[in-house]
Amino acid sequence: VLFVVSLAYFALFETSSDDTVLNTKRGLLFASVSFLYIAMTHTKNGPFTRPHPIVWRLVLSCSMLYQLFLIFILFQSDKDSRKLLSYLYPDLGEPLEEIDYSSNCKIYDPERPEDPYHNFWDKMDWFVIFHLTGWWAKAIVFRDYWMSFVLSITFEILEYSLEHQLPNFAECWWDHWILDAIVCNGLGIWLGIKTLNILESKTYDWRDLWSIPGNRGKIQRILSQFTPHSWTKFDWGYTEDVKRWFMVILVCTCIMIFDLNTFYLKAVLWIPPPHPINFYRCVLIGFVGAVALRETYEYMSNPNCKRFGQQSW
Fold it and tell me: How far is it, in rounded angstroms, from Cα 85 to Cα 278?
């Protein structure tokens, strides 16, 4: 209702503007909101029901809108794609300054006695925290230690292979294998597995709010609405049969493509790493991936499930 009232207000009372940029932003905003509203009300519920199924229908709708955006920029030149983003974010559209991570790989630099470990401290930027929290979330989504570990090592190998295309993939050996693979990725995966152990051992009791005595119990019940309704432990069974093996390989390949897209889109569209659009995309992909992997696992493990879920597609 509020959305329809807003459209009526702009149609009847808002003075028309000759500002092309403003009109374009308004048009894209209201067209996107219209699409999300229609998609939310017509898509089916997914495997997740907390805090409410409509939240996950919104995630599905946002992923559909994001895919349409990617298809659109696929047919644009690099210059036009950057110009489009600069309409939405005026601070974009400038070439990125590449950071050199591999020119000096000395852990201890005697030529800088005042700060001999400067090479190490220079690598300790915001991306370390992003790495750690990212692999913590991935371990929770994959629900499997070995899949997380293999994907972590595979991505480091891909960084070696793609240095000629993405210069910021060129890092020192200890940055690749110690700081990234062992410390950030390894610690994040370990924390994710510990979180899984808590979720798997938790007792899920969904009593009616008004049947719970005391205000404290009611508050805890309200807060628990934002936690999972139940928890399913994944057993991917990589070697059970050939079909399951190839399905797991396909899943891992898609995950690697999603991860690489983060860096390629950033490089091609000139989006600085700290920019909010990178954070929004990663959050969306995280929620989408959680639902898609749950649906994919259901398809692989449940003989009564004959097709992929809508988020998996």
Answer: 13
Q: How far apart are CA 205 and CA 197, in angstroms?
A: 18
DSSP state of 40: H
Q: How far apart are the first and last CA of the chain?
A: 31
Map tokens 């067209």 to a residue: 31
> Facing residues of 171 across strands?
101
Q: Which residues contact 199 (CB under 8 A, 6 or more apart)?
A: 140, 228, 231
User: Which residues lie closer than 8 Å to 277 by C-beta, 6 or more apart?
Assistant: 85, 89, 92, 271
CA distances from 196 to 48, 56, 130, 138, 202 (A): 17, 21, 20, 11, 10
Q: What is the pLDDT of residues 66-114, one digit of tens each?
A: 999 999 998 999 899 998 888 888 888 888 887 777 777 777 777 777 7
- Nearest C-alpha neighbor of 102 from the set 122, 131, 132, 116: 122
Could you give the CA distance from residue 123 to residue 58 in angstroms, rounded to a whole number? 37
Task: Report pTM.
Answer: 0.84
Per-residue pLDDT tens for 144-164? 999 999 999 999 999 889 988
| Sign, CA torsion 192/194/195/201 | positive
Q: What is the DSSP string of 192-246?
A: HHHHHHHHHH-------GGGS-SHHHHHHHHHHTTS-S--------TTS-HHHHH
CA angle, 299 then 43 then 243, to 5°: 15
Give the single-character DSSP code of 159.
H
Predicted confidence band of residue 206 (pLDDT cuts 50, 70, 90): low
